[in-house]
Amino acid sequence: MERCLKILALDVGNTSTAACLWKDGRISNAIHCDGSFAETSKRILALLDKATSKKNKEPVTFAYSSVVPKMDSKWKSFALRGKLPFHQISYADFTRANISNITFDYPKPETIGQDRLADAAAAVERYGAPVIVMDFGTALSAAAITKDFVWRGGVIAPGFPLMRDYLFERTAKLPRLEIGRGQTPKIGRSTIEAMRFGALVGYRGMVREITTQLRKNFNQDFKLVATGGYAKWALKSSGLDFIIDPNLTLFGVGLIAAKARQKDI
Fold it and tell me: Taking a C-beta distance cutoff of 8 angstroms, is the pair 113, 135 a contact?
């Protein structure tokens, strides 16, 4: 029987950092931080304290995923100071351990982003295959895993923050749109409403076309799973049949690290 590992899972994104405790296929105490490394590390230390209380002496592994390479050394040092085994997830974990039965039909699988690997592993583990998993973050990323559990490839497109910032930076009069809240107007009757309509309706159209085309290309009825900070807002009342799983990436980080670490025990 496999030994259960307690894991501090961390996912570093372009605009925020998320963390949770992971054990035996369950996550707890999930947090999302938008501050500096100093502020975020304090919150992570508090989370770590919960995992290593006097009543709880189990060792903790630091499982790490990042799309911001310049942060890697800081978090490695954080783990070293806390005497935590540090495991940065990668494609190599899939070659060493049976992670959600996923194999890859992809020319250079070692180039796949850590967050995308985590999303795919978690989506298959929780919802099965075939599945399309989309992450609504700074960029919109998607991966398609077919019914034979093979990663076929994916899609990367601009996310809401990139679209908003580009409009603001490249035009003289358009304001920086606040995103993540608000309803879709019937039509824009002000500059802000026009931008909000374009962002929400246009973005949903892109998501709908991506999923429609992938289903057509592979002739499979993919389940649709969404995660990321903008997923709930973007998909609300869209009519798209997505399962929204806010902590999917964190679950995947913990899952991959746990499976890979079992090989070292």
Answer: no
- Do 56 and 130 reside in the same domain of the chain? no
Of the candidates 115, 119, 135, 245, the residue annotated as catalytic is 115
Interatomic CA distance for residues 135 and 249, integer angstroms: 9
**Is 135 marked active-site?**
no
User: Tell me, what CATH number does 178's domain have?
Assistant: 3.30.420.40
Each residue's pLDDT tens digit, 127-146: 999 999 999 988 899 999 99
Instruction: Evaluate whether residue 126 is within a structural domain.
Output: yes
pLDDT given for residue 203 in this prediction: 83
pTM here?
A: 0.88
Long-range pairs of 103-108 with CB within 8 A, sequence gap ≥ 24: 103/149, 103/150, 103/151, 104/150, 104/151, 105/150, 105/151, 105/152, 105/153, 106/151, 106/152, 106/153
